[in-house]
Amino acid sequence: MKTINVILSGGVGSRLWPLSRKSKPKQYLPIFDGETLFQKTVLRNIGICDKVMVVGNCENFELSRKDLVSAGIEDYAEIIEACPRNTAAAIAFAALAAKPEDILFVTPSDHLISSGQDYQLAVERGVQLAKDGYIVTFGLKPSRPETGFGYIEASGEEVKGFREKPNVETAEAFLKNGNFFWNSGMFCFQAGVYLEELKSFEPEVYKASKEAYTAAEDGKLDYGLSMKIPSISVDYAVMEKTKKIKVVQSLFSWSDMGSFESIYTYLKKKGHPVDRNGNMAFGLNVHTEFVGLRNTIFIYTEDAVLILKKNKAQDVKKVFEKLEQVKSRLIE
């Protein structure tokens, strides 16, 4: 039995456009102490897990390889998706590549996490529960009424329910209640247990994923077979349906780095200039002044500029989607 860190690295990071593009998503941006979020993920878990397995896509697997080499990691497994089919299938590929009794510690590649004792204790508890046959998720104690995250309602390690991204009033109620936790998007389970649950709840996803994986050549999946896989998240496919669910209430510092508000907070802590009205400029090598503006972020790249209010950071995805509809090269 091995513990395998399955790193999901197929995301685009549309809320961080124009920094994040399809050709270089946010997990490969070296703006976090000179490292990428992908590298930080690998290095954070290498002492806890026996093996690294990367599930990426045909557009960014070379970036993963480059980051792994830079981090000094040579022994790893790789699965290259032909097209995005969501997390239920991505994890199925990893489970099919492992032995049924292997423990999969599934992590996104684009989260910023403090890898101290709290993190290690949480992962160790997750692995222990997985060895006992449970499907494990990790819940983070919320520090603010966040509307951009999903929540887990819990009583100890028992999951009472999953909640969608709430409005402000509901998020404030969750925070006051004390029994609601941010859904971290991290999971732990035996490969065989996951496949059994997936087969039970989403047999079409299981069957099509297995067919695509079986036909893969050198870890690369076939496009035609991949397109037959229903696109569904692991939360909807398994987590919200299984009776084997457990949650590890976790205290480690965590951010999904999913918006410019998160980037703003990180850079501010690192000493990046912010004026007295809370305005920040990023990517510019010239002096910048903000007049009549508060809590505004100015992001500059060679071919695009984004100016936004910090509290509207989640809406950047709409800009990305609009550019995607017109097939703009600005997202490539």
The low-confidence runs, each spanning 5 or more residues with pLDDT under 50, are none
Tell me the span between the first and last alpha carbons.
41 Å
CATH hierarchy: architecture of the largest domain: Alpha-Beta Complex
Q: Strand percentage, roughly?
A: 15-25%
Largest sheet: 9 strands, mixed
Number of helix segments? 11
| Overall geometric form | globular
Instruction: Tell how many strands the DSSP assignment holds.
Output: 14
The secondary-structure element order is EHEHEHEEHEEEHEHHHHEEHEEEH
Mean pLDDT: 93
What does this molecule look like?
The chain has 332 residues and is α/β, with parallel strands linked by helices. It has 2 domains: 3-255, Spore Coat Polysaccharide Biosynthesis Protein SpsA, Chain A; 260-331, no CATH class. It is 33% helix and 23% strand. The chain is built from 11 helices and 14 strands. The protein has helices spanning 37-45, 61-70, 86-97, 117-131, 168-177, 191-201, 203-214, 223-226, 234-239, 260-269, 316-325, and strands at 3-8, 51-57, 77-81, 103-108, 112-113, 135-140, 151-155, 158-163, 180-190, 245-250, 254-255, 280-282, 296-300, 305-309. α3 packs across α6, α3 crosses α7 and α6 (191-201) crosses α7. It is globular. The model has no long low-confidence stretch (mean pLDDT 93).
